[in-house]
Design brief:
Number of strands: 4
Largest sheet: 4 strands, mixed
CATH class: Alpha Beta
Strand order of the largest sheet: 3-2-1-4
Radius of gyration: 15 Å
CATH topology: Nucleotidyltransferase, domain 5
CATH architecture: 2-Layer Sandwich
Mean pLDDT: 81
Strand content: 25-35%
């Protein structure tokens, strides 16, 4: 139970610090499980997800099987979608 509380506190502390430093940029959040990868570009001011991409989508799932290749395609898709939304700067 303590470990969960510590990890939650750590995540909240890091997000709070990013919001203070991150004034003009959007935040990129990446989640990796054993099988899938997902990434989001988040606007902390309005608290909304602007763009997201996941390895469970048809374009990525039907293609290559290695995780490295999937992550490369995921990054390209996320960048392409961000460009369509006219997002030029993001913070990782």
């Amino acid at each position: 139970m303590r470990k969960i509380n510590k990890t939650i506190k750590r995540k909240n502390r890091n997000r709070k610090k990013l919001m203070q430093v991150n004034v003009d940029r959007y935040r990129i959040s990446v989640y990796k499980s054993l099988k899938n990868i997902s990434a989001q570009i988040i606007d902390d001011k309005s608290k909304k997800t602007l763009v997201s991409a996941s390895s469970t989508e048809k374009e990525i799932k039907s293609g290559k099987s290695k995780k490295m290749d999937k992550s490369n395609l995921l990054g390209e898709m996320l960048a392409k979608r961000a460009k369509e939304k006219k997002n030029k700067q993001s913070l990782f």
